Amino acid sequence: MRQLLYEAILFDFDGVLADSEPVHFECWQEILQTFGLDLDWPTYCEQGIGTSDRKLLAFLCDRADRPMEVEQLIAEFPRKKDMFRARMLERQPFSNEVFELLPELRGYQLAVVTSSGQTEIEPILERAGLRNFFQAVVYGGDVQQHKPAPDPYLLAVEKLGVRSALAVEDSNAGETSARAAGLDVLRVRTTSEMPRLLRQRLGLARLI
After folding, report:
1. What is the full DSSP assignment across 70-116?
2. What tens digit of pLDDT does each residue of 159-204 get?
3. CATH for 21-89, among 1.25.40, 1.10.238, 1.10.357, 1.10.150?
4. Which residue has the higher pLDDT, 8 or 205?
5. CATH 1.10.150 domain locations along the chain
6. How deeply is 148 buried, as exposed, middle or buried, from its count of CB atoms within 10 A (0-12, 13-18, 19+)?
7. Residues sharing a CB contact under 8 Å with residue 39, sequence separation 6 or more, in sequence order
8. Residue among 48, 16, 20 nearest 168 (CA)
9. Which of 25, 33, 80, 82 has the most CB atoms lying inside 10 A of its own CB?
């Protein structure tokens, strides 16, 4: 019997399980334009991926041409979440490779660890029929400090009741968070390469 390298695999959601970062970006870009703020893709990638939306909005307020309080933008959270959820439910954000991968990991405890809110992510997982693959999900609202703090990953490990876990991340903030929680990290650049890299890391033979 093959010995497992880890007890659990912990997945970031955006950019790891689902190609959803462009959707987050387009939602915020549309909302911010009404405030006269311009959000470009490189800025979003640097300031918005892997961390809380609050950090991104605070960054934009600090660099706005006219004084602006971050609370003005934070008030748009509910609208942005509704936009994101609606657009994601209209699409298929999960690749066929992700659908094929998850059943291969049944020997592991699985969790999603995301800075996004439950109302954004849970319906998407449910709609795709993937929620039951995960024994735990940690949402942004579940912790006081988001990535890069270790809190999200520490909570995931606590929920699963495991000691050894591998975190799969696509951002500096996410990797810092997982390593601060004492976890190994598989860093990926895209959702499309994630299944292949994870199989390699775990020594899984590809199922035919």
Report:
1. HHHHHTTHHHHHHHHHHHHHHS--S-HHHHHHHHHTTTSEEEEE-SS
2. 999 999 999 999 999 999 999 999 999 999 999 999 999 999 999 8
3. 1.10.150
4. 8
5. 21-89
6. buried
7. 25, 28, 29, 32, 60
8. 16
9. 80
